[in-house]
Design goal:
The chain has 16 helices and 22 strands. The protein is α/β, with parallel strands linked by helices. It binds nicotinamide-adenine-dinucleotide (NAD).
């Protein structure tokens, strides 16, 4: 896609809402969307007005009645078509994402292709949702447990994975027979609108998929409070997740995928080179703006200095660039000024409390970085739990490292957090692996790899990292209610 084609795509989506099967210009005020690599305004979103929100919920309720009665095979075919359309336009959609989010185009394309995969995965799952027959204590009775789609889902999503985090909710909703209203993050709305465009092209009926843009505190909150919305599927910060739970005025199903503060433990038996490679990838990919990013690393004391030197070298070798003009850069711009400021704060706090700077520590220098939210991948050592970097989610390209002496100590420090999303272990000793995988109080534990989430296994956090699951069969079942049908047919044994 050329620059002109990208500009045309953004212009087509500018100020649009996707309601009841078609785009319409929003009536509300316009909010600017910027390219975080340059600071240029690339378009505007319309803040959905109360009447538009009501219209959308009404359209979604009509869509739900129709879609939930379709055969699972019909829904599966639509999801397969959607996956094919998304994959066919991966480059165009990736450039839209890079323009608003900052991640390099190659990485954005990978995310779009994973969204296409999610469509195909859930298409296949759609036809395999079956119930149970439960034995009864009395003759002449039979209990059927059937699954019925929940209804209208409001999907409220953050900006770090603008396609996948919309996609998991969208695909599961479509497979289950729900209708969905997507409220994307204010700063990355155009990827969601581009996905809605593909839904229309895939022939998904009017009202089944809708996109409303605007501020979370207004449009998101209005959806949370709307009596016509049956389920909230939220991904975002723990603070907003808790606020949603506390302010929802009706009883409603909720999936809350929230923040993390993810530890990595590297024991003396680990393959150090593999651990360093994993640490560099999962600390700095997407500039560390990942809920499952490694925030803090605990390394066995005998290999501590060797690990630090190698991680510093790996961080220094990563390239930082404008994601549109340098599609193969390792890191693009950070998505906005906010996570960059938090990264700088956490770094300053760590250094003031005695941490040792191993790599990075500043924005890259040069003309190409002026006006953008760039920062070098940064490693600090000798960290303690008095430092913010070890206890709060930085959501930036900064990782803290500390030594440990016993496995028990490593587990205790790793679990010393209100979060419980993902944790990482590098070890080759089987006993160590078993002790760590049992001892880590996290929804996901990745051992000798750093890809904690895969499409066909449940993905979710514990403690303040959330409730409910996405991915896999468990992720799909979050979009169903159970119904128990107890039948007296009267036929005795
Ligand atoms: P955020 O909580 O600020 O915003 C998320 C979404 O909620 C946005 O669409 C926002 O507009 C909306 N929102 C804000 N206030 C709202 C309200 N009162 N009612 C309804 N909606 C509201 O999060 P963010 O800064 O966009 O994203 C970063 C956070 O997301 C990090 O904490 C990260 O860990 C988390 N995250 C978690 C996962 C996961 O799977 N657990 C995945 C990605 C990101």
């Amino acid at each position: 896609m050329t620059d002109a084609a990208l500009a045309a795509s953004l212009a087509r989506l500018d100020g649009q809402l996707f309601i009841d099967g078609s785009f319409r210009p929003g009536v509300g005020i316009r909010l600017p969307v910027e390219n975080p690599a340059t600071g240029e305004t690339i378009g505007r979103i319309a803040a959905a007005a109360p009447q538009e929100i009501d219209d959308t919920v009404a359209a979604a309720r009509r869509g739900f009645r129709l879609w939930s009665r379709e055969l699972p095979r019909t829904r599966a075919n639509a999801l397969h078509r959607l996956g094919d359309l998304i994959a066919a336009d991966a480059d165009g959609m990736a450039r839209i994402m890079t323009a608003e989010q900052g991640k390099p185009v190659n990485e954005a394309r990978g995310e779009i292709l994973k969204l296409a995969e999610a469509c195909h995965f859930y298409a296949e799952e759609a036809t395999r949702v079956h119930g149970e027959i439960v034995p009864n204590d009395q003759p002449g009775f039979q209990s059927l447990v059937v699954r019925e789609a929940i209804g209208v889902v409001a999907a409220i999503t953050p900006w770090n994975y603008p396609a996948e985090l919309v996609g998991w909710k969208l695909c599961a909703s479509l497979a289950a027979g729900c209708a969905i209203i997507i409220k994307p993050a204010e700063i990355t709305p155009f990827t969601a609108l581009a996905i809605a465009d593909k839904c229309a092209q895939a022939g998904i009926p009017a009202g089944v998929v809708n996109v409303l843009t605007g501020k979370g505190s207004q449009v998101g909150q209005a959806l949370v409070e709307h009596s016509g919305v049956d389920k909230i599927a939220f991904t975002g910060s723990s603070a907003v997740g808790l606020h949603i739970q506390q302010t929802c005025p009706q009883v409603k199903r909720m999936t809350l995928q929230l923040g993390g503060n993810c530890p990595m433990i590297v024991t003396a038996s680990a393959d150090i080179a593999a651990a360093v490679k994993g640490a560099a990838r999962r600390s700095f990919r997407n500039c560390g703006q990942i809920c499952i990013a490694i925030n803090r690393i605990y390394v066995a004391r005998p290999i501590y200095e060797e690990f630090l030197a190698a991680l510093g070298k790996a961080a220094d070798a990563l390239t930082v660039g404008n994601g549109l003009t340098d599609p193969a850069a390792d890191l693009g711009a950070m998505a906005s000024a906010e996570p960059l400021a938090k990264t700088r704060d956490h770094l300053a706090d760590a250094l003031a409390r005695g941490a040792r700077l191993i790599a990075g520590g500043a924005a890259p220098q040069g003309e190409g970085y002026v006006g953008g939210h760039f920062f070098r991948p940064t490693v600090v050592a000798d960290c303690t739990h008095e430092m913010l970097v070890m206890t709060e989610e930085t959501f930036g390209p900064l990782v803290g490292v500390a030594p440990f002496d016993t496995l028990e100590q490593a587990i205790e420090r790793a679990n010393d957090t209100p979060y419980g999303l993902a944790s990482y272990v590098y070890a080759r000793d089987l006993t160590e692996i078993q002790v760590l995988s049992q001892g880590l109080d996290y929804g996901n534990v990745a051992i000798n790899n750093v890809d904690a989430g895969i499409m066909n296994a449940p993905y979710g956090g514990r403690k303040q990292s959330g409730v409910g699951y996405e991915h896999g069969r468990e992720g799909l079942l979050e979009y169903f209610n159970f119904k128990h049908v107890r039948l007296h047919h009267g036929v005795g044994n």
